[in-house]
Amino acid sequence: MSDLLAARSQMAVSLMFHILFAIAGMAMPLLMVAAEAWWRRTGDPVYLDLTRRWARGTAILFAVGAVSGTVLSFELGLLWPRFMQHAGAVIGMPFSLEGFAFFAEAIFLGIYLYGWQAVPPRAHLAAGVVVALAGALSAIFVVSANGWMNTPAGFDRDAGGRFVHVDPLAAMLNPAAGPEALHMVLAAYAAVGFAVAGIHAGALLRRPGDRFHRAALALALLLGGPAALLQPLSGDALGVMVGARQPVKLAAMEGQWKTEAGAPLRLGGLPDLAAGTTRGAIEIPGGLSLLAYHDRHAVVRGLDAVPRADRPNVLLVHLAFQIMVACGALLAALAVAAGVTAWRQRGVPDRPWLLRCLVAGAPLGIIAIESGWTVTELGRQPWIIQGVMRTADAVTPMPGLGATFAAITAVYLALGAIVVYLLRLHVLSTIAPASSGRVGSS
Amino acid sequence: MPALADTAGLAIFLSLIAYGLTGGADLGGGAWELLASGPRAAPQRRQIAHSLGPIWEANHIWLVLAVVLLFTAFPPAFARIGTVLHLPLLLALLGIVARGAAFSFRAYGHPEGESERPWSRLFAAASLLTPVLLGVVVGAIAAGQARPPGAAADFLASWVGPFPFAVGLFALVLFAFLAAVYLAHDARYAPGEGAGAGLEDAGRAALSEDFRRRALGSGLLLAPLSGGVLAVAGWQAPRLLHELTRTPWSWALHGVTAVCALTALAALIWRRLRLARAAAAGQVALILGGWALAQYPFLVPPDLTLADTAAPASTLRLLLGTLAAGALLLLPAFFYLFRVFGRFRRFQGERGGQDGGGAAR
Description:
The structure holds two protein chains of two kinds.
Chain A: H1 3-42, H2 45-79, H3 81-114, H4 121-150, E1 156-157, E2 163-164, H5 168-172, H6 177-206, H7 211-245, H8 247-254, E3 260-261, E4 265-267, E5 270-272, E6 277-279, E7 282-284, H9 287-293, E8 299-300, H10 314-345, H11 352-361, H12 364-380, E9 383-385, E10 389-390, H13 391-394, H14 401-431
Chain B: H1 2-34, H2 41-52, H3 56-73, H4 75-84, H5 86-108, H6 111-114, H7 118-126, H8 129-142, H9 154-157, H10 162-189, H11 192-196, H12 201-236, H13 238-245, H14 248-269, H15 273-295, E1 298-300, E2 304-305, H16 306-309, H17 313-350, H18 356-360
Antiparallel strand pairs in B: 1-2
């Protein structure tokens, strides 16, 4: 394994691990606050129980996310020092703001967890709202930094290649920032909403009619369902932006090898790198032109527009994109099914067939997020800053990165095993006892 | 420009002090967790978990803040440190991850059973890596060893040596001392659900005594260790030693540090635990201050100064403005959090440490 590939792999492992906790930090507090608000309104103890369980889940995930986030802040310099040397002054700003958002999250989560008896009810609920907002803001700031790598803005370069006339605000508000952030926040709500819904759907299959799990399922679906239905719209905005700013990435996502007018939309298929075509896809004529440029006959630039050395790994990017779209479509379908069932039942949709589908669909949103980030990051290669700096020029000169990659991976595997163990304990203790008389016994 | 750069440097330094006083004590607590012994070994571990648990997540924000400020305000310095000191920083991170894992087990697993498991101990042991290696990083930077790498061997030569490891050992004992002082105080005044629940006043006092003895032992050990660090500096980093001793202010600073150290020890002997806590914290902050002043105006000696490596003024102004605004917003919230902790603990005390945790956790 080359040092560059080792560094990229280490960054990928760290990010793919951390993103799970970042999305939990965005969505779990929202669920927890919704349950508490409902409890304060109705006085129904089931919702108090639910609030406490979700708060504990949030705390576990936050503790691990704080650690993996700390590791990431260092890895920017450990793996990509030359990138940070030039980019730090330009995009350090959103990272600093993210630091503050994380700070707020930690403080108000502390107030929330330890303040049940110590602060007035409204302040307690408000603390939970701040945690949810700060989680979303954290993601928006970090994603805006990623957006800058895709659509760099807010600086000029002098003859020596140095970054001058730095405008950190313009950098933060780069063209990709908005669509990417919206897509990420909705993805987090959809993924966590359906993951939580799947857990409680499984419990309801074992104990039909359990009030605790019905309440949990309803709130989780209310979060995940609308997000899954709105996600295609934000995906469209993002796709149009990518088409305009990163045509090569779009071509890789779609397996579009030749520049052509009226390009088809390909569903599935395998890009054949040697022959330069994509085989076995279902093609919708003019579909890609329509999606990317909102015009059936628009010219779509293919991979042939740039030399081979400037192309990303078409096979992986295309497949990852197909997986993301498929998972997203399935989640949207689940949302519709749950919505229709709820409307017909005039209540919590708990028909066994639907519950089984929800259990099966629990991991879909998380798979979609991991593959979506694969598209974003691999699709930008060979650039670390699109069109400005190559990833190969950004990597640390330190030799032997394969060994550090192996060490970090081993540590993350161990940490992952611990998280799974703790969450399993937590979920099992939530599912195990009967729902009555359980309040306060957590 | 220099004023902006200096202010940004000061902000980084302050967040490092905050990390030392919070996260450093947490890491030092890992040492006592490992060394828990005697008839009260289990209550000792519970007290450590209880004192450090509630704010553990928030501690790391200070380190993250320092890192983020460094790469925004002084990108070339960050790039240099990340490149040359890659290995000790990576090892320090592994320790942070291990400590996080150990903490999560304690807080969210089955608290009674998990602490006794061998792998939980293993994580506590691994977390000792972090204070040593953070000290190694500081030592390597202070001694001017973080020079641009020429050959592969430089990635080891930059930090493997007597001086960085002398500083690493000093950092470990310093943070263990700080942790023991905090713990002696908390065992007496803020026992909480974990340790205080099963213990009468006498048991609580005995637990506090355990930590007080540990604080005294490690505090006394600091005296020969700091002498040793200075001796190694004279041999390995003469320029640093010169900077540390060249001006009247540096002697004044060392004097105040020594007064803090002696006050902390005396307060421990006389069981004035609140005073001991304040003096020990002051001692740690002043030691870090001595390091910072000895290097000034260099960020990474011998070649990178604050002014040379500073980001453009547009970035620095925005960054410092954001820092000020963020501090105005968050500091009140931070103090509110500590008041909430205080009430939470009192509430638990009134209820005999019973279900209070159940409501919150």
